[in-house]
Amino acid sequence: MSAIHQDKRDDRIRRSYSLAVGRWNTVVQLKTTKTEPGGVLLYWLLYLKLFHYFPPFRIFRYLTFRTAFASLTAMFTGLIIGPLVIERLREFQIGQYIREEGPKAHQKKAGTPTMGGVLIAISIIVPTLLWADLENRFVWMAVLSTAAFAAIGFADDYTKVIHKRNLGLTARMKFGLQVLTSVLIAVALIAMQNRNLYSTKLVVPFIKQFHPDLVVDRLVHNPDLWPLAFLPFIGFVVFMIVAASNSVNLTDGLDGLAIGCTLIAAGALTVLAYVSGHATLSTYLELPRMPQVGELTIFCGAMVGASIGFLWYNAHPAEVFMGDVGSLALGGAIGTVAVIIKQELLLPFIGGVFVIEALSVILQVASYKLRKKRIFKMAPIHHHFELMGWSESKIIVRFWIASLVFALFALTTLKLR
Questions:
Q1: Is residue 283 part of a domain?
Q2: C-alpha span between 130 and 38 (Å, rounded)
């Protein structure tokens, strides 16, 4: 009898345990399954709500389709509101001031409306908010980074307009604001790592198994020195984003040059973001699997569309200049996306022209300070070619070609890892 009672008790325990596990699995499934991701505005409306009445709307659930629509929305936003923005800039007499030591051919551009980067920022941010998953933290990080760098550029451009000279914020103030914004991004990424949504390890091109961690693990567990463990990662992120932002800013010197190179770089980042978030492709190319970054494909697609829309009015001869509000925002966006998708070390190839422009300024300044001699006739290097007699349109097209070659090379390295 005791054996029978023991068997019955064991059965009751097993049934209770099975019931508890079943309830726990149900709770977990309810918590982890998103039945209605209401953070996606148009996806929520066109797919979740209207799909039952119009079955073809099921196509709006696909990331590639939403990316294409975000790009088209950004492009048409720029094309449609472009004339309105340009007219308002003229009314407020927000024109470009040309530095006296610049090429003489640029003096005729004085008075051309500047701060057109406002159009770029709107064309990137609005389509992203419409088509991307607003519950995705990486999307908000890219959007807020773009807005923050645009605000810094806006303050710089506005100061130039008020003082009616080609000098805005002091270099120290502008650099400090850029660094502060980048530090906040780095801290947010560290918080993401604690939730296993991000990794502070580098992805090194051509070397598959080498992934150095920028967080010093030995210091993390030290109760007194743990903040120092994150300094290498924060410093690296700050360098990449600030360098990208200022490099695009230095490239913005000829009609359509910076925006054309940005268009190509954004296209490459669109591919990289999609691949990084795709289970099969990331595994095939031996890239870190980061499902959450897939939504950044929409942000990058919006950047492509916004670049096309702005280029329509910025092509030589330009009807409007982007100003620092545009160049700093674009550079900050490119740097932020590269850091998030773990392609920081590939960024110098993606934006090869930007790197060359920045290096030409660094070399020019260093050479003059050390040797009292200049390497180039004028820096950035596009002015050097102007003074050599190249026409502006020839320089622009050739730099676009170089940018395309760099971007294609960056994409080919994915298979060579």
A1: yes
A2: 12
Burial class (CB in 10 A: 0-12, 13-18, 19+), 122: middle
Q: Are 309 and 76 contacting, i.e. CB atoms less than 8 angstroms apart? A: yes
Phi then psi dihedrals of residue 201, to 5 deg: -80, 145
Residue 17 lies in a domain: no
Backbone angles phi, psi at 95, to 5 degrees: -110, 165
Residue 241 domain-assigned? yes
Residue 62 Rama label (left phi>0; alpha psi -120 to 50; beta): beta
Domain count, the chain: 1
Cα torsion 54, 55, 61, 66: sign: negative
Amino acid residing at 368: Y
Q: Helices marked H in 92-223 — which ranges?
A: 117-131, 137-163, 171-194, 217-220
Indicate the residue type of 303: M
Range of the domain at 264: 41-412
Structure tokens at 202: 């580098």
Give the C-alpha distances (Å, rounded to integers) separating 96 from 114, 289, 316. Answer: 5, 45, 15
For the residues of 312-360, what is the DSSP string, one character each? Answer: HHHSSSPS---HHHHHHHHHHHHHHHHHHTT-GGGHHHHTHHHHHHHHH
Distance CA 239, CA 24 (A): 46
Owner of token pair 């030290």: 222
Residue 370 in any domain: the answer is yes
pLDDT in tens, the chain (417 residues): 444 444 444 455 444 434 433 433 433 333 333 334 444 566 555 555 555 565 666 676 788 989 999 999 999 999 999 999 999 988 876 666 555 555 656 656 677 888 999 999 999 999 999 999 888 999 999 999 999 999 999 999 888 877 766 666 888 999 999 999 999 999 999 999 988 899 999 988 888 778 899 998 888 888 888 889 999 999 999 999 999 999 999 999 899 999 999 999 999 999 999 999 988 888 888 888 788 899 999 999 999 999 999 999 999 899 999 999 999 999 999 999 999 999 999 999 999 999 999 999 999 999 999 999 999 999 999 999 999 999 999 999 999 999 999 999 999 988 776
Between CA 357 and CA 406 the distance in angstroms is: 14
The helix (H) or strand (E) run that includes residue 169 is: none
Phi–psi pair at 316, nearest 5 degrees: -65, 130
- Measure the CA–CA gap between 281 and 4, rounded to whole angstroms: 57
